[in-house]
Amino acid sequence: xxxxxxxxxxxxxxxxxxxxxxxxxxxxxxxxxxxxxxxxxxxxxxxxxxxxxxxxxxxxxxxxxxxxxxxxxxxxxxxxxxxxxxxxxxxxxxxxxxxxxxxxxxxxxxxxxxxxxxxxxxxxxxxxxxxxxxxxxxxxxxxxxxxxxxxxxxxxxxxxxxxxxxxxxxxxxxxxxxxxxxxxxxxxxxxxxxxxxxxxxxxxxxxxxxxxxxxxxxxxxxxxxxxxxxxxxxxxxxxx
Length: 240
Ligand code: ATP
Known about the structure:
The protein has 240 residues and is α/β, with parallel strands linked by helices. It has 10 helices and 10 strands. Helix content is 37%, strand content 26%.
């Protein structure tokens, strides 16, 4: 058995412009891995391509999930296989209630009882969503929207989740709360890959990390080692 997720010589181009230039990456079952890098490095493109959210014609190389080639597949099919991306908080449905938004994430499932049980689990993890279950999605705070986005991915009962900058636009206290929730979700068995521009929180949360620079993977190691790496400290942690 290989890793749960593997990228081999993965490349992505928008038209003639190649923005990811042949990278290798793997995530083992049960792991929490982060992909860091500066603005425009290609992190979002990589994540969205894994989830099937970019155009298939831009993809080269292999993406393997649980032994199956998935590059170029439609996102809904990939989600049904158990690999689900947490959509950005601002992409939740503003005119649906919190509960309707959550149930909408269960579109890949038919087991009503299982869905109800998972809904209660999500309310237990995020009591603020329970308190606000009849409130419109659009009226939630940024942090609550991020919780709802995570809940919406979890209700699909995924084996692995992908998150694109969970800290974006949130106050430090809320960021800590969101990352604590992600850590717990991982502890309970869901494999996690997340992209983050906040390298400090990324490297103190995940177990292993990859550093992407203008489409090339320049470094990978345990987060512990990356935190002590002088180049990483200078370029990504803002230290002299
Ligand atoms: P950020 O954190 O700023 O989003 P990133 O590392 O996630 O950075 P990407 O968003 O993947 O980087 O962008 C990588 C490169 O691809 C950038 O140069 C960007 O301008 C370009 N790019 C992204 N989306 C498109 C698109 N739809 N069409 C053309 N070019 C794009």
